[in-house]
Every structure is written in structure tokens, then in C-alpha cells.
Amino acid sequence: MARTQSHDFGDGTYAVTSGSNIGVIAPGDRALMVDAGLDRDAARKALRELEPLGAALAGVLITHGHADHFGGAAWTARRQGVPVIAPPLAGAYAHLPLLEPIFLHGGAAPISELRSKFTLARDALATMPATMVPGDLAVAGIEVQVEALPGHAPAQVGIGYPAASAPAPKGRTLFCGDAVFPQETMARHPILFCYDVDAWLATLVRLPKLAYDRVVPGHGAPVEDVRPLVSATAARLREIVSVVREAIVDPRTPGEVLRAVAEHFEVTFTAPQFLLLSQTTVNAALTSLQTAGEAEAVVAENRLVWQGR
Question: Which of 2, 1, 9 is nearest to 223 (CA)?
């Protein structure tokens, strides 16, 4: 289990880093939580950061709809009596957690291996959360900047503080969700989960241009210079697409393409859920190649096969 650490950026902004990171924005007597970790235990650790501050939690902001980032939100909302605010699809997942394993199982009722807390949050929000969109957002008098960072997940956002219109004597912090990954995470999980390769690469071009002095990724330590993480993440995505492109020189099924990608990265899947997560990434790479006119999907002998063009 990852060791929990607290990072104080000196302006009422904190990062609680562990398996999945949680942000705390507490400039006065009110506070916001950015993401809520995998479960109530992770969220409870972040709430402990508020105790010495004397700040009351006023809301939970979710960057994207993956259980390791919103799994503690429902418990926190009930315990603290606060609203949850999320991008539209992430909000639907937090309210109806079964949507995530349904998504991973191609729209079908999920198999038992997809019903662990890593892909099926244990707690569900009683109602749909409020929706956030890119731009300025004020919650209980705390103004933040919502940045569009799609790709890893649909409609993923980052939360920036202080907002662009506010002074920032201690600099600005961006909680960027899973827009970038550190090298140690990519070493453990070389086939990065991806919804939309092209959207993610566009996000990675834009991210270093945003006016922030430090970036807190969803996993790993905060950084003052996000460019190395951007370069490494973009390189890995391009590598995955390149391997997929080479794999479909001859027609192959999506499963056969995944096998080629796994062999390239020396990955051995030990359970169905890990294979299905990586299959989503391979499918995203195939979509990217089709969009670029480099691949086509055909049906041959009642099999869906992909081939290069």
C-alpha cells in the first residue's frame, strides 16, 4: 500500500498523496476536496488534513469518473452534508457506479472480476451531483478554475486554484487528474488506460501552456515542471499506437492486437479485469488510426478484424 504524504503549498492548498491523490483547497474557514480517493478510508485521510486548519468542508470536486478517484465521494457527502460537483459523465458514474464496469465489459452486465472496488465503487451518491464545465467555478465563496483535460477519461477536468482572475502570491496549483502519469506508474502499468488517444495527446500539448506553478497528478508526487511527465506520457501513448499500427499490417482481431501490444510491453495479464482495461486502450488506438485513415474495421468470417490502409 502506498504511503500517505501531505504536501502544503503555503496558500491553503494541500495535496494528500497516496494510491490516488486527493487535493484540499482551504483558503479560509471553508474548504473543497478535489477527488475523494478509492473509498471512505482514503477520503477520511484527506478530511484529517482539515482538522488542524479549522476549515469546514463545503464541497467535493471530481476530476473524472474512475472509481479510484470518486470512490470516497458518496461517504464524504453523507458524512459532511456537502455537495459533489463533477463533469457530466463522471457525475453519472458516481451516482450509478455500475456504469464503469458496464463500460469496461462492452455495454454488457459486468463479470464478477469487474465488480471489485477498483472498478465498481462501493458507495453511490444518492442523487446526481451538480455539473461542472470548463471555466470559472465558485463553491461556498472559493473560486477555482475548471480546465478541460479529456483523453484518459471522457470529459476529464483539472481543478486550478487560485482562479485565473485572482491574485496568486504563492503561485497557482493545478490538480490535473490522470492527465499525466509518473514513470513509476507507467513502469507498473505500461499500457495506460485510455478512452481517446487523440484527445489525450491534444491535452498534453495544451497542459504545459496553462498558467500554473505546480501540478498535482492523480498518482505520484506534485511537480513544479510538468513537461517531463507530459513528454513521457505522450511518448507512451504514441508507442502504443505505433505497436498497434504494426500489428495490423495483416488483419487481426482486437484481441490479437492486444496480444501483440502485451508482448511488446512484456505484460502478462493475471486476471480478466486487467486484460479488459488494456483492451479499451487498444480499441482507442484503433479508433485513432481509423480517424487518421490508417486502419479500417471489417467483418470477415463473422469476426471483427482490423487491417492497415
Answer: 9
For residue range 196-230, what is the model confidence (pLDDT) as tens digits?
A: 999 999 999 999 999 999 999 999 999 999 999 99
**Could you tell me the domains of the chain?**
5-233 (3.60.15.10), 246-308 (1.10.10)
Q: How far apart are CA 3 and CA 204, in angstroms?
A: 28
pTM, rounded to two decimals: 0.96
